[in-house]
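Reopening this ticket.

The earlier resolution said the output was attached, but the attachment link was broken on my side. Pasting everything inline this time so it's all in one place.
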Amino acid sequence: MSTTSDLTPSQASSMTSSAPAGIAEISPVARAEAGQVLTPFHIWTAAGLTLLPIPLGLIGFFGGIGLAVYFGANAPEAAGVSAVAGLLVGGLAVGALVFFQHFLPSCYLRAVACRAFGQRSQPLVRWDDPEAEFVDIVPRSNWGRNMLEPATDVGFWRIDSARHELLFEGDNKRYRIPFQAVASCEVEKFCLGAEQWRADVYFVTVLNVQTATGPREIGLVGRHLEASPRRMPQRRLQAYAFCKRIKEALGAGLVGQDASPA
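Inline output:
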């Protein structure tokens, strides 16, 4: 007996399009096309890009200080320039690690997804759709845990107002969610690990939807893809803006709920 994962993309799409109104359908991507983004290689590469400012900063800092010592009294001007350059590189590395920590890995994973999804014959959401957003699926069980990659899926999300559906084309699964299947859409937050100062707070847009097997919770997290600093306030605004767009699409039934940052 064949399973959904053995189906061709056209067969899977046909099954998905026949979902009953008011019921969300979550189906696996065909086995030949799935699991090409969140592989161990790409996850470790993204982790390396996250930490890249550390070795670059150390090399620049100690290299500058070393040159300053080398020039010493024989070339005080060159020694001063080297010391300042070393301090500047070290400072820039710290700033990149603090404010742009997830920028390079997010851009990398998106590029991998664009290349992989571009080979799919009938995706629910195209990678080059200007209205598509690159997001993570992060289950509640992974919130606050120190993990190399907390997301269980990553892909492109789109609000299809014309068809009254929320769509997600993921690395592993496809989501087709009729507006009627959404019970709630809220933003929740968590602190990473045992962060006692609550400076490293993350925000998740949580959808509760009705599926054929019962209620299902979907945690959506936007990626850092803009070349601008992002810390807790920016993550918060991104999550609430994402939630607001969904509620506005769903209509008055959910728009009346509070969708503003507290």
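Reporter confirms the inline version is readable. The two ends are 51 Å apart (CA to CA). Confidence is low (pLDDT under 50) at residues 1-19, 252-259.
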